[in-house]
Design a protein that fits this description.
Elements lengths: L10 H49 L1 H6 L2 H34 L8
Length: 110
Amino acid sequence: MMSKNVVAQSPLQRNSVASLDQKLAMAKRCSHEGVVAGAKAAALATIATAIPTLASARMLPWARANLNHTAQALIISTVAGAAYFIVADKTVLATARKNSFRNPSSNREA
């Protein structure tokens, strides 16, 4: 029978692996919060942009002549995409900052 090469980990290595797992879990949670907040902001921005864009394309002569369906969709989707990325980025950074102040000892590992 062949034995497996198992190396005993020192307490420092085990602590380091646990710390990395904890940091990975925290990063996943931060990014998930960012995605959810970004999606909510994108949905709100879509509605807030679509109503005046579609209304002006029907009522204003300049907009009726110059904004076809593709231009209207581009305006709405650009605002929604910008809102998503801005809010998601701010949320991830705020969550990471909050967590770094909550557990400052984990930031000082050698």
